[in-house]
Amino acid sequence: MTNLVQSINARSMAYWGLAGQIVRTIAKESEAHEMGLLSQLLASFGNIVGRGPHTMVGSTRHGANLFVVNVGISSKARKGTAWGEIENLFKNSAPAWSKDRVQTGLSSGEGLIFALADKPSADGCPISRELTPSFSTN
Predict the structure, then answer these.
(1) Which of 47, 58, 66, 73 is the most buried (most CB within 10 A)?
(2) pTM of the full predicted structure?
(3) Buried residues in 92-110 as b, exposed as e (16+ CB within 10 A)
(4) Domain spans of the chain?
C-alpha cells in the first residue's frame, strides 16, 4: 500500500505550477493522458526557450531542454492526441517556433535522414554545410 500512496503523491506533485494548470485545463476536454500532455508541454517549452534558462544543482548546470519518448499501445494510448493539444497551444503562443522548428515525417530512419540531409540548390546540386569539429573540455 505504501508504494501506491507514494505513486499517487509523486503523480500529483508532477502537476505543480503553471505547467500543472495547463495540463489540468486541457485534460478536462481531451482524451490525452495527463502525463503525455505534461511531457510534451515541458519538452516543447524547453525547446522554445533554448539552453539559456537553467538552474544549478551544486556545480552542475541543468537547462530546460528535455528529450521525451511517449510509449503506449498503438491507436489506443492517445500519444498523438497529447501532442496535438500541446502543438495547438504553441501554434498560438509561439507561431514562429511551430512553423519553423516542428518537423513531421520522422517515423522512420529514412524520414530522419531526409530531414537532416543537405538540400539541393537551384541548380540541383546539394548545398554542402561546412562542418567544423568542435571540442569541449566540459
Answers:
(1) 47
(2) 0.69
(3) eebeeebeeeeeeeeeeee
(4) 2-102
